[in-house]
């Protein structure tokens, strides 16, 4: 998983709507801008309040369970809601976020 500075906006929206043209949380892009032969996808897991949301680029290196791409994308999105420090979804899944925190705490002792 990498944090890239890609930004997505909605292509089809009405000007009557008072909302922003940001993509909704849970938006997955896995065609046209991803690699043809690799299994990667962009996931915009959080809603932007003041700016355009930043999606995260995920690369699936090895799938030993044989999940379909939709299942992996949905599981990744659900894991973005399990961070105990935040009541909303976060940019990266909680297990990925907790790894550096655990390493920092381990080095402190």
* Global mean pLDDT: 77
Strand fraction band?
Answer: 5-15%
Number of beta strands: 4
CATH fold assignment: Nucleotidyltransferase, domain 5
CATH superfamily: Ribonuclease H-like superfamily/Ribonuclease H
Question: Segments where pLDDT lies below 50 for 5+ residues?
Answer: none
User: Distance between termini?
Assistant: 28 Å
- What would you call the quaternary organization? single chain
> What is the CATH architecture assignment?
2-Layer Sandwich
> How would a textbook summarize the main sheet?
4 strands, antiparallel
Number of helices: 2
**Helical residues, percent:** 10-25%
H/E element sequence: EEEEHH
Q: What's the CATH class, please?
A: Alpha Beta
Overall geometry comes to: globular
- Number of structural domains: 1
Describe it for me?
- The protein is an alpha+beta fold.
- The protein has a single domain, classed as Ribonuclease H-like superfamily/Ribonuclease H (Nucleotidyltransferase, domain 5, 2-Layer Sandwich), CATH 3.30.420.10.
- Helices cover 24% and strands 13% of the residues.
- Strands 1-4-3-2 form a 4-stranded antiparallel sheet, covered by helices on one side.
- It is globular, with a radius of gyration of 16 Å.
- The model has no long low-confidence stretch (mean pLDDT 77).
Keywords:
single chain; Nucleotidyltransferase, domain 5; 2 helices; 4 strands
Helices and strands, with pairings:
Layout: E1 2-3, E2 27-29, E3 40-44, E4 56-59, H1 69-79, H2 94-108
């Amino acid at each position: 998983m990498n944090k890239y500075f890609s930004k997505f906006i909605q292509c089809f929206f009405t000007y009557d709507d008072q909302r922003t043209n940001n993509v909704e949380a849970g938006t997955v892009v896995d065609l046209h801008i991803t690699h043809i032969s690799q299994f990667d996808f962009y996931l915009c897991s959080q809603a932007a309040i003041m700016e355009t949301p930043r999606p995260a680029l995920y690369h699936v290196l090895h799938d030993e369970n044989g999940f379909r791409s939709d299942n992996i994308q949905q599981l990744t999105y659900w894991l973005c809601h399990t961070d105990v420090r935040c009541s909303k979804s976060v940019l990266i899944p909680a297990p990925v976020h907790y790894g550096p925190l655990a390493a920092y705490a381990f080095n402190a002792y």
